[in-house]
Amino acid sequence: MTTQSITSLMGLLVPFARKRNRYLQSRESFYEGRNYLSNYGRLESLVSGTPTDQIATKKDIKFYGLSFGSSLKQAISHLGKPNYTSKNNSILSKHKTIYYRITISKVKCILQLHFLHDHFFLGLIEIRSVNEEFKKEVTDLIRKKYGIDNTNWIGKIVDGAQHRIELKNDIVPYIVYQSGHEDIREAIQLQLSKLDLSKQKLYDKRSDLILEMI
């Protein structure tokens, strides 16, 4: 094959490769798109009123064996090197998120751990399966682990330190583990209050500009 022929062939292949790559999801977008706290509403739900549909447990709630309040270094020591560390700016300052890909009973899952001021406060297990039997198995295991007698339980469990587990049976099922530490709650509330104030100032400024124009 001549050099000219090879060049012509490569010219045909490159557009094809570019077209194919457009449909491939990048590693960054795969993980960043899963960030549970990427919107204001989710953050607000963390500090909203105390849930009423919850069941108490005598056992301490931990996330994959990790205690709430653990540092990022302690989490990595416990779980190993993460598959991905979030690079995007968060709504919260001093907030970091790491991800792990694991397999539970042959079902692929994604763990995401959130840290505020280097304190672990929120963990999620994303179950990447629509298998109803597996979801029921997971629910039963959580119920048994934390001593919940109600076989029809589906909702929230809270321990003595107000740490919570919540099963969210959305299109993509999640198990959400949330810290009950009051200092974390207050830190999030403070940042959200500042965000609200900033939004209000921008709104007022915009309103003033419009009033000057009309």
Largest sheet, in brief, is: 8 strands, mixed
Total DSSP E strands: 8
How much helical structure, as a percent, in the residues? 40-55%
* Straight-line N-to-C gap: 72 Å
Strand fraction equals 15-25%
Structural class: alpha+beta
Q: Output the number of helix runs.
A: 6
Task: List SSEs in N-to-C order.
Answer: HHHEHEEEEHEEEH
How are the strands ordered across the major sheet? 1-6-7-8-5-4-3-2
* Average of the residue pLDDT scores: 80
Label the overall shape. globular
Rg, alpha carbons: 23 Å
The low-confidence runs, each spanning 5 or more residues with pLDDT under 50, are: 200-212
Structure at a glance:
The chain contains 6 helices and 8 strands, in the order H-H-H-E-H-E-E-E-E-H-E-E-E-H. With 214 residues, the protein is an alpha+beta fold.
